[in-house]
Amino acid sequence: MRKIKGIDLFCGAGGSSLGARAAGAQMVGAVDAWDIATETYKDNFPRAEVVNARLHERSKASIFSNVDSVDLIIASPECTHHSIARGAKPRNEDSRRSGWYVMPFVRAYEPRWIILENVSGMRRWHGFPELMEELSEHYHLRTQLLDASDFGVPQSRKRLFIIGDRLKKPTKVVGEMSTVNARTILDAPDSWTARPAFEGHLSPNTLERIERGMSELGERHDFLVVYYSSDRAGGWQPLDRPIRTLTTVDRFGLVRWVEGTPTFRMLQVSELRKAMGYPDAAKLIRGSRRDKVKLLGNGVCPPVMEAVVRSLTT
């Protein structure tokens, strides 16, 4: 049986494609506007045609020179301006319209399957019903909100998946894997340098969150603290549950007790990639630390996409 061929639009570092490949697909093309992302994608998919370009309403499938036909289109349109994390800030309509930029590729290639991934807030975009109507003219659709923690990923990360099959209604994707907690992502205690938490290098807000966690858990219990961005859950979390959603910035620090003293360090890229469910063999070597954090925070958890692709192709 021949391999299913696919392309990945708004591919980022290739988390979706890693999952699709694990499900048996051959990824033959990918597009992203960020050069660090496309370089990373090439590292992991050297045989794919990878294009560094910003997709827009006039983009055409001819952006690929060597992709003649595909069975599967995966796309993760820009989610920044659908995200509830943006609060009431002004939103960029061009970013929200990026879901439409997939359609020229759908019309040109007429793939058997399509998978669009985005934050749940995409459903509140005023253009969402029209996009769904357009897709439903060609595909049987299923829309699901999937949490990565149901698929063996040690992270609570809910994302919307629009799943389409030209021939039949897609089956429901069910995640039935045991919950994996945040403790599993941590590197060995002596892997990274940590400083005493209360020696004056942390902001008052961070110290308040640390004190809150210590008060709840008691001494000598390690935990995670939110170092950056707002948080509605107290600013900390224990290690016996999946880590909360990773974002594009350094968000989480680790409070670890060493010889009776609480120490603090930021989570490292090696730990964040485990929190995304990245396979050990996947390369993430391009750009600065900040770039790597952004690549991961923008990404799709490979085990979730693997499950979605398998639901369509098996």
From TrEMBL:
Transmembrane domains' residue ranges: none
Catalytic activity: a 2'-deoxycytidine in DNA + S-adenosyl-L-methionine = a 5-methyl-2'-deoxycytidine in DNA + S-adenosyl-L-homocysteine + H(+)
GO MF annotation terms: DNA (cytosine-5-)-methyltransferase activity
Pfam families the UniProt entry points to: DNA_methylase
GO BP, one annotated term: DNA restriction-modification system
InterPro entries: C5-MTase, C5_MeTfrase, SAM-dependent_MTases_sf
Source taxon at top rank: Bacteria
Keywords on record: Methyltransferase, Restriction system, S-adenosyl-L-methionine, Transferase
Leading EC class: transferase
E.C. number(s) listed in UniProt: 2.1.1.37
Residue numbers annotated as active site: 79
NCBIfam families in UniProt: dcm
Family stated for the protein in its record: Belongs to the class I-like SAM-binding methyltransferase superfamily. C5-methyltransferase family.
Name of the protein described by the UniProt record: DNA (cytosine-5-)-methyltransferase
Organism: Dyella tabacisoli
